[in-house]
Write a structure and sequence with these properties.
36% helix; homodimer; alpha/beta; 11-stranded mixed beta sheet; Alpha-Beta Plaits; 13 helices; 6-stranded parallel beta sheet; Dihydrodipicolinate Reductase, domain 2; Rossmann fold
């Protein structure tokens, strides 16, 4: 069989990783695919740069769209990045020119995935993107193929290595967020402008894609509820620990009666669960299916070599002639995304309050919870005696005391109502901290 | 496109699970595959039995081989079980008659997988077996497709739910093996004759298959080193806990300089690792690849519904026209399995000795270890004082005291030599317990 000819646009760490993989493991891969995979043309910003890899024999293109349109390639691999601009133009050009596309570009897919899927399927082309979600973890193929007999009810995961690294170090070292972030930036685990990671946007990009694959719906990025990790304090992490929880930033997509709930926020997970041990830059994705039950995949969520492994797996599928609907279901049959708002979210909550130690304060808080029908699983006063504030313990008046509450299952609407009332009552000296508990 | 016609042999829990899945999720699956999947013929031992599922409209065969040869089917699904007899005959018949085969039969594959792969590939047929290893966990497709750009260096996992359930309950309840086993038998988590599970044979069947897929070698079941869990005591579990370990039965296949090491035995794993949280009947498989790094898949290892999910995933691949080499690499290109014997195994060890409390006993033990070049990471005397026995602590003479040793990395040959010498010296009252520590 003829070699599969690849045009590779973007020669950053992942691009060179792909070239390295094909060089080192190309012979074995050829056996497994029944044909050779050859990168015959490349494109990148600077031609002269030494990337430590031999590019001789590969045609050079300054313009990725020109490469995408080249009649000499079968597959266009887009590793440029960015939701608009050169990447989008080149991918569209490739599909219009009848080339299969492999991409690692989560932003592009989160924003334009449904349209690109239509474009690819109209021409019976592959648009593969295993590397766009959770790096080396083969979650896209798992959803698109292995679980295709299942109705998925929930998909969730730790999808951003930077956030997980920061939370892991905060827990292990008791350091505040800002200090660990600064350190992570120095060590290269966080960007100079970390907003995109720490505020959850990157997780949301991946979640939007996973949600579509899991539920057979159009990709909907803008409807995701978003909360980052910058508000998490050592006090929260310590209290979580004592109550048997660890804090992780999760992306969660859930099928509910009122639609699909998509949310990214810090989450309390039982300390002894397997997912709570997914530390540092590792990622994981868990899927609940009606037949398979609960499965979880753990692995490196980024890095040149794991990402190259996924890019090459996508190319190998094309080499084997496997051309599937881009998002699992044919794009024309994808259901519109029906959003379930956060107010209907159901779950337990961790609440940390900074309460003025006045008579009646605690009773007032408990009353506000009761008024919203919220029942409490546990209450811990973090410092001083174990008595609730306002119950007679001698302490300086108007000295706020931290109180941590775990609620039984309730709704987001109820908890927000209760917390607003507690704040309005004037018994707390700042906005209450609220972290959702994820059922496992 | 025409429906894919399935002949299903074996209507036990998994077989009826497959029929149920196709009934409940068939319409969605049809969309995802681009064609319908229809079970048009079945075979089982007793025709009259009520299985709670409608078989009307399906042709009935008393003989599975007759079903396998029927010109009215495209795919033969073998859910009969057993490494010889009806299952083997029917699978061979199906392949000779040009039918694709899907099977959940790990024993058949462990014993005859390489030959069956040759038979299938000679006719360009699929022989899919996702359900044969780790139930609902999609590890076969992950190895065969997602990781095909990698050189795998190790694959290991918790592959038997019965053993994991017993070890989990022993740990949680402090009960001895025999009591938990009896209870597991009453609850249906262990067979009346549990040998096959608890002595590691079932794990070895799955390991033989995984090892072939991971390393591109012929399946070799007979060369697997085998140790079950019946020798594990509450004392071991307690000592492991105190030292920061949990005990799990693992199947491990490892590429070494002297060949492939395949072993099934109880293993010490760090308590805070994700794999150590895989409890009860759950399974998991971990893979170390040269590009992807370390990934792990966790999920239900058995059960009608998870297994049906995997069987249907195999059928769906055939419906989509994906026909791959059975064991990843073409059968003709599989390398012979070169066995690395256990004596060259390298790792740390947990040793529990029952030592006569005599002067010089401890020095003799330490000397034997030193003579084999084994260095000790920690030593714990389990009861009484923390002094080593023989070091002057007053206690009744000839009263054995448990001593637990953790070694640094050494070889199996060295540890066996040392333990033989310690036993021969007469300082211990029984055979030493030895449990390998698995590097993570």
């Amino acid at each position: 069989m003829k070699p599969l000819k690849i045009g590779l646009a973007g020669l950053g760490t992942v691009g060179t990783g792909v070239l390295l993989l094909l060089k080192e493991n190309g012979a074995a891969l050829r056996q497994r695919c029944g044909r050779a995979i050859e990168v015959t043309a490349v494109s990148a910003r600077s031609r002269g740069k030494d990337r430590g890899i031999d590019l001789s024999g590969m045609e050079w293109f300054d313009d990725p769209s020109e490469l995408a349109a080249s009649p000499a390639i079968d597959v266009f691999v887009e590793l440029i990045g960015g939701e608009e601009g050169a990447a989008k133009a080149a991918v569209e050009t490739a599909l219009r020119a009848g080339k299969h596309v492999v991409t690692a570009n989560k932003a592009l897919l989160a924003m334009h995935g449904t349209d690109l899927a239509r474009l690819a399927e109209a021409r019976s082309l592959a648009l593969n993107f295993e590397a766009a979600v959770a790096g080396g973890i083969p979650i896209v193929k798992t959803l698109r193929e292995s679980l295709s007999g299942n109705q998925v009810t929930r998909i969730f995961g730790i999808l951003n290595g930077t956030c997980n690294y920061i939370l892991t170090r905060m827990r292990n070292e008791g350091q505040p967020f800002e200090a660990v972030l600064a350190d992570a930036q120095r060590a290269g685990y966080a960007e100079a402008d970390p907003t995109f990671d720490i505020e959850g946007h990157d997780t949301a990009h991946k979640l939007a894609i996973l949600s579509s694959l899991a539920f057979g719906t159009e990709i909907s990025f803008d409807t995701i509820y978003l909360e980052g990790i910058s508000s998490i304090t050592p006090a929260d992490i310590e209290a979580a620990e004592e109550l048997g929880y660890k804090i992780k930033l999760l992306g969660v997509a859930l099928k509910t009666e009122s639609g699909i709930e998509q949310r990214v926020h810090p989450t309390m997970l039982p300390s002894h669960s397997a997912i709570a041990q997914v530390d540092g830059v590792l990622n994981c994705v868990a899927v609940d299916g009606d037949f398979v039950g609960d499965i979880m995949l753990v692995g490196p969520g980024a890095g040149a070599r794991p990402t190259a492994s996924s890019v090459v797996s996508d190319i190998a599928d094309i080499a084997r002639g496997l051309i599937l609907p881009v998002l699992g279901k044919p794009a024309a049959a994808l259901a519109p995304h029906e959003r379930a708002g956060m107010r209907t979210h159901e779950g337990g909550y961790y609440i940390r309050l900074s309460v003025y130690d006045r008579p009646g304060a605690f009773a007032a808080i408990a009353t506000r919870m009761a008024q919203e029908g919220i029942s409490l699983e546990s209450i811990v006063q973090k410092h001083g005696s174990s008595l609730p504030p306002g119950s007679g313990r001698p302490s300086p008046p108007d000295e706020p005391t931290p109180v941590v509450i775990i609620t039984h299952e309730t709704t987001e609407a109820a908890i927000r109502q209760a917390l607003d009332a507690i704040e309005a009552d004037g018994h707390v000296d700042r906005k209450p901290q609220m972290i959702r508990i994820e059922r496992l």
